[in-house]
Structures
1.
Amino acid sequence: MRVATALVPAIAQLALLITNQDLSTLGAHSCLAHSYRGTYGAQSIFVADTDCYVSLSDNLDAGSIIPIPDAGQLVWLEHEAVDDAIRPAAFVDELDASLEQFADLSRPASGASSQQEVMDAQEPLVLLLHRTERSALIAVDSEDAAHALADHLPRFWKSTPIPSSPVPLTPVSLVARQRVQDILGSVKFDPIVASIVNNISVTYLQLDVRYLSGEDPSSPIISRNAFTEGALIAAEWLKDSMEETGASCELKQFREGWAPNVICSYPATENTTETVIISAHYDSRGSFGSTRAPGADDDGSGSVAILGIARTIARKGIAFRRNVQLCFFSGEEQGRVGSRAYARELRAANANITLVIQADMLAYHAPGEPPQLGLPDRIGTPEVAQLVANLSAIYSPELTVGFSPACCSDHQSFWTEGFPATQVFERAGPIADPMYHNDGDLSEREGYDFEQIKSIAKVQFAATLHTAGFDITE
Ligand SMILES: *[C@@H]1O[C@H](CO)[C@@H](O)[C@H](O)[C@H]1NC(C)=O
Ligand SMILES: *[C@@H]1O[C@H](CO)[C@@H](O)[C@H](O)[C@H]1NC(C)=O
Ligand SMILES: *[C@@H]1O[C@H](CO)[C@@H](O)[C@H](O)[C@H]1NC(C)=O
Ligand SMILES: *[C@@H]1O[C@H](CO)[C@@H](O)[C@H](O)[C@H]1NC(C)=O
Ligand SMILES: [Zn+2]
């Protein structure tokens, strides 16, 4: 890669601040409050003019200020928290190699016809602006190039395009958090809820995941990468399967050329705007250079948990008192693109979202380990995580509950928009799945535990039943 910061002719007045300082203190400074570009792992990013930083230098106690080019698309790259057992030796070198490869790929083919194209071809196409051991900030030509990057990264690196304009710094309000706290305070074992959540069928979890992963010989799906035919087939199949159970679903296109979000709804029996969302992402990512992306764990497991909950809602004749949505997002692997569009749309409509629980990777734990439930240690609303933890103790006591540093699934899109949200994950620790982002992510393998999917799905379902309220109609 040409690391070409010095070659960029004009550094604009804009500079980027990366900091792990508390957002609530930083947001009090008006020039920062209108410069927020999101939180990435433990770091928050602001883009402001240099005068802003000068004016509050006394109040900035941590972080780096980095000059940035005035054109191009910024991308945050972060290494996932992975267990030592599967960590590649020199992951920083691995990133260098893949960025170099990416720069080559995005450079126009030789044989450029005009002098201008030859000139353009010599511009650096990947600009490294900042790096640490586990993260990097780069600039690429365009948003499309940023999205394409996801397919070319080593599997433990995640890329997230940084929005090109400021995003609102909308913390989850105290009122919204109190509402979850109130639900938590009222939760106690309910034998009817227990009999409902226990009715989730492991047989269907198996059949459904085999269809999505393509392990079922009758499935045409080879990949569910958001740009592939397989993702479109999966979206249609999820919609049809969900509608067979009585939900109303919509394929919501969020961007041309991408497979849509699948948004399924159950109307409330009471007159209320309150809405509970449980979700997963159905798109997948394979290994670089392979067309296979079965994603049986990531995130076939979360997707079939949601579908399994829907099948149980139908079997048990459940009608919810408040609105409930079951969502399957696309474009998670390119930086939560589908869920960001949906969460933004809900915020713009002043939607009344009580809580969101995203299921991402529910199946795997290392052989010999007990079944687990991991909650995010950084991104998310603590009250929702506590509700999940308490419901797990009540309805799935077989799970060992703890925190995970594995970070940042679609719940972050909702949390960013100020909606209470958390994630459920397969491990109370870092990622340990040796087939993570690999074309070997199948359901028939050691460590892939359908009972664990069911146990976690029970918790997600119990949270929905307790929060939305319900009646049994048959
Ligand atoms: C949630 O569980 C914890 C740990 O068991 C317990 O201390 C706490 O009282 C519970 N919260 C509520 C509101 O039940
Ligand atoms: C779910 O409940 C139905 C009856 O409502 C029963 O026939 C079925 O065996 C149950 N399945 C499980 C997995 O409990
Ligand atoms: C539902 O509630 C809203 C606001 O409280 C009220 O304006 C509306 O008339 C109610 N609709 C019905 C059908 O009761
Ligand atoms: C959401 O619903 C609750 C309970 O009905 C209500 O008190 C609150 O005003 C609603 N909020 C919005 C933003 O509609
Ligand atoms: Zn995932």
2.
Amino acid sequence: MNMTDKKASAALHPDTLAVRSAVERSQYGENSEALYLTSGYVQPSAEVAARRFNGDEDGFTYGRYGNPTVASFERRLAAMEGSEAAISTSSGMAAILMMCMALLKTGDHIVCSQSMFGSTIKLIGTDLARFGVESSFVPQTDLAAWKAAIRGNTRLLFAETPTNPLTEVCDISALAAMAHQAGALLAVDNCFATPVLQRPLALGADIVMHSGTKYLDGQGRVMAGALCASEELVTEKFLPILKSAGMTLAPFNAWVVLKGLETLDIRMRAQAAQTLALAQWLEQHPAVKRVFYPGLPSHPQHLLAMAQQSGIGGAVLSFEVRAGSPEQARARAFHVLDSMQLLSLSTNLGDTKTLAAHPASTSHGRLTEAQRQSAGIGQGLIRVAVGLEHLGDIENDLSRGLSGLDALK
Ligand SMILES: *Cc1c(COP(=O)(O)O)cnc(C)c1O
């Protein structure tokens, strides 16, 4: 946990902050950020130790509570999201758990989109329900449904935009106003957009949640998570949960993600530019029925997405292959994926390597067919998280399967 270097941040651009903020050099003057692998800290005196443990003086006491490398990552992410403070966790799911443990108790109610990340729906709808936390899941883009779901005991609205895999976009400002009118907080899962495209706190949200595992690392190496929020929420609500529950981010992982932040801006812009070009190419392809990408004018929330996401659609798209029946659609989608020689068949995202997956049989495989239908996840749907390979090579690899589809049964 740590605070943003507020004065310094105010004068600098976000891409500069990504490289220069939260650099704390040791006595050796290293230019690259140091990695502090230690679980404990030597205290200068018993008196200072007592003050530090009591929270009366800044200073590291134990690895579960804090670490200089972890603190650098938190301060840099806070600077990029424009938040007063940030606190990191061992994974994105651990960040959501920390948020819910800190803000909800038995009898409280949370409203989420029904198209959120699958593990988020399981954690909130099933696991937290065992502790008496109530939840409602509403259609992502239906503001009236969000409003109708709010009750007297609603403490938190939790949105993710754009969503996976259909890239549905919800209106952060409208949801923030709605939450605040009800005396609740709005949290936004900003994994897909990252602070490069979208800064939910500036749009009125109270908490930004991250899976550092995705674009913040950017090269698919480590797990990490974080919450960005006010100093008050971080120190008074989240930090006590971190201390007792121990979902601490490992210093090595923090160092990897800290360095990942330095190239986030350039990676996101390059990967998103490729994604837009790939989306346009797929939309013209005779074997493709429909493309889901916020950067395309055909996307239902295109204008909202462009206004909310700095005019950039993001680096994930999905497309549906043309087919007669669900069985044929599944066989055709499998054919496209199994014909790839370059792209990775993987359900992850946020990597420099392009990853492609079949949501209906993987990330959304545990849903019933009716749930899948209502989520709009067809058997012919393929999700592509676009990386940094040459666009022509990505298109060629998808062409291998797509161009042969009509010859299939
Ligand atoms: C991956 C992901 C998470 C969970 O993060 P982990 O680091 O895997 O725990 C949450 N939300 C979204 C949108 C994600 O893509």
3.
Amino acid sequence: MLSFGRFVTCTIAALSCLSLVYCEKYKFCMVDGKGGYMKSGRYCPNLDIAESKVECVVALDRLDCLRRLSKGTADFSVFTAEDLVTAQNSKIEVLVTNELRYNAKDNYEYEVVAVVNNNAGIKSKHDLKGKRFCHPGYGYETDWTRILANYFEASVVTPSCDTDLTITENRIKATAEFFEASCKAGPWVNNPSLNIQLKQKYAHLCELCGNPSKCSINDEYWGRRGSLLCLTDGAGDISWARLDDVKTHFGLQSGLVPDQYSLLCPDDSLMPLTAAEPCIWVVKPWPVVASRRSVAQEIQEIVSSLSPNVTGWRQSVLKLLETSYTVVKKVDSVEPIESYLHRATGFLSANSFSGCHPPRTINICTTSIIENAKCAWMRESAAVYGLEPDLECIKADNTTHCMVALNQKAADIVMVPSDLVHRAEKEYNLTTLFYETVNVDEKYITVAVTKPESNIKTFADLRGKKACFPVYDGVAWNTVKKVLFDKQLIKNCPLEKEITNFFGPSCTPGLPDNLSGSMKKTCQEDTFNGEFGALQCLSSGAGDVAFVSRNSIKKFVSSENENSANSKLKIEDFKILCESKTKPCHLSWAPLGQGMIRNNSTDLWKKDTLDVFLRLDNLFGKSYQSLTTPFTMFGKYDGKSDLLFHDATIRLRSVATSKDFDTMVYPYKDFLNVDTMCINSNASRISFNGYVLLFIAAVSVRFCFN
Ligand SMILES: *[C@@H]1O[C@H](CO)[C@@H](O)[C@H](O)[C@H]1NC(C)=O
Ligand SMILES: *[C@@H]1O[C@H](CO)[C@@H](O)[C@H](O)[C@H]1NC(C)=O
Ligand SMILES: *[C@@H]1O[C@H](CO)[C@@H](O)[C@H](O)[C@H]1NC(C)=O
Ligand SMILES: *[C@@H]1O[C@H](CO)[C@@H](O)[C@H](O)[C@H]1NC(C)=O
Ligand SMILES: *[C@@H]1O[C@H](CO)[C@@H](O)[C@H](O)[C@H]1NC(C)=O
Ligand SMILES: *[C@@H]1O[C@H](CO)[C@@H](O)[C@H](O)[C@H]1NC(C)=O
Ligand SMILES: *[C@@H]1O[C@H](CO)[C@@H](O)[C@H](O)[C@H]1NC(C)=O
């Protein structure tokens, strides 16, 4: 009886186990690329059939997949070697099961070597000083990260740690001083004017280029082939190049004598170009399939079974996995990241070169745990792509606390929404480093809104009316102050006091008690708070006019109709006040937010920091170059919008517009010093009024004479 019972239990366990394996599919974490690379819609539905062992989980970016693997909500995905370094640094355990190779025979995507001219007298690293250096340059960062591009110099050049210079400039200076001359074409930094400035200052680094004054990506000695041409044309003594390019270059060009050139090895020996086992400085590993530990063996079996001739669901899995890589190569035994990357010559040490001491760090202030987590992933991503200075993320309670932290030097940069910019400048001595630029329809476009039946036709009609502002001292508030001042509807300084006597009882969340004048509160701040609150204030009849962003009206109408069954608001229930038929109706416009720093930061520090953020934008912003992105700067993180940056941001720029041809009038930044304008204009305005009186007097005198 006892043994029978045990037998039954086992069978049931085995059965449930079997059905589990059969029913439960392995979750492939899928990242869609841009444009034509939206593969999930095409191939994921093919996996819905019962016999498929795999199903899709669609994620935002590759690090999102890494987090899902770590949480157990996905089982396997495709990663780059840089992603694996991020995983390792973030203590996320995954196992490498397969490589996605372009061809079966090459162990790495590419290998990088140093080629020297035998007549240059270079026998070891110690002979390199004062020689002429050919470098492929910059401008194709996605498969040629700065880490790999700078590896050789990081290994051989005496570092420069001048505290008066930016980290980038120190690197440039070190190379410029070490070699007699070089060609390092393409953008050294992302800020075009700084790029020109540096190239003029360190002209030695462009001296060997075909066109030293331009030193651009169009140079004949720029790029993978360019650095080898620079060497074989006799311009330089040594070239940093990919081994496959070296083979092509020297194999194709007849007349060249390969034994005039050698490989310089990291161990200080020389090797002929034709060596069977060429000495490599650093390799770029293939993209890989990696999996959670508990299912790694099974994933490897499935993935390894995918060959170009497979059909059915397996074919769809292969399509989902492959990028331009077509050969699925099994890793000998499923392997932890550390040992896998350890075998990749130089790759890990390339990621751990120490910089100058003390290290320079940019401390980014965040305002919540989840925002800080997004910031931390940005920091990790920045590090594996070789961005300097390092980033650090510091959490405060809200933006006000962050501004205090900046003021007290506990943090260096904070993202400030437009409504808080005036306060940031005035109270915390902060200044703008860059703007989060957006498309026109995402801008904050201040307008005065009334009900359609309202008899308010001009700004003068607004005197004594009940106003609804989203917040005190925000974009709308400061804009209205400037507009009323320009129209001479308020004249006396301080304008802040004056505006509160212009309107009647109003709703302005955050208005200080000692300011309220005739405008004293008419509303509960929590009900009429923010953009929607101001529109609610208007539509409920509490106010006669609301000052909000034009874009908020549509959003408000749809949100109201969504949230309350008997609400039937229409856009036509709101009318934008427009005084003139010839001038635009909007009062000002602002980007969504801006990166702000201490006003008294040094020029050098500003340049370093701006460059880091422009490069982050380039790598992880909307215009990333690779098929899929490791990290989404301007988009959701863990399902949450507008963390650290606004999702709608197009790009970061040192000007407020996303495009140079955007010439929308009335930028908000021109409205911020209206209080100083008032004080300065007091004297001239009195005399202006005087002239008017004189003029009227003159007219009446002439009238009398006639
Ligand atoms: C697919 O090709 C592989 C070799 O690439 C071969 O071993 C296998 O038998 C083929 N499978 C089918 C179903 O043709
Ligand atoms: C931040 O919190 C403080 C209270 O700790 C509050 O006074 C301040 O208004 C808050 N700032 C913002 C922008 O919400
Ligand atoms: C900049 O201002 C902060 C306070 O806002 C002050 O602590 C710091 O010493 C100033 N730095 C310089 C270089 O003047
Ligand atoms: C802002 O800067 C001015 C002038 O440098 C200084 O007098 C003032 O104390 C600073 N304010 C704060 C809050 O640091
Ligand atoms: C920032 O500092 C400069 C000089 O260092 C000064 O001219 C300017 O008025 C300051 N701006 C603010 C907002 O404090
Ligand atoms: C109102 O009070 C604040 C302090 O609470 C003060 O800084 C500000 O200058 C006052 N404003 C006026 C107009 O008196
Ligand atoms: C500006 O002029 C008005 C009178 O027109 C006066 O009341 C006010 O005090 C003046 N403000 C300044 C800062 O001079």
